[in-house]
Amino acid sequence: MKRALISLSDKSGIVEFAQGLVANDFEIISTGGTQKMLEEAGIKTLAVEEVTNFPEILDGRVKTLNPYIHGGLLGRRDLSEHVATMKKLAISPIDLVCVNLYPFKETITDPSKDFADAIENIDIGGPSMLRSAAKNFNDVTVVVDKADYEKVLDELNNEGNTTLATRKKLAAKAFEHTASYDAMIAHYFAEQLHEVAPEKLTLTYELESEMRYGENSHQPAWFYRDALPKKYAITSAKQLNGKQLSYNNIKDADAALRIAREFEEPTVVALKHMNPCGIGQADNLEKAWDLAYAADPISIFGGIIVLNRPVDVKTAEKMHKLFLEIIIAPSFEPAALEVLKQKKNLRLLELDFSAKDETPAFETVSVMGGLLVQEQDMTLEDLADWTVVTKKAPTKAQEKALLLALKAVKHTKSNAIVIANTERTLGIGAGQPNRIDSTKIAVGHAKEFIDDETVLASDAFFPMDDCVEYAAKNGIKAIIQPGGSIRDEDSIKMADKYGIAMLTTGIRHFRH
Question: Does the record carry S-adenosyl-L-methionine as a key word (predicted)?
Answer without folding.
Answer: no
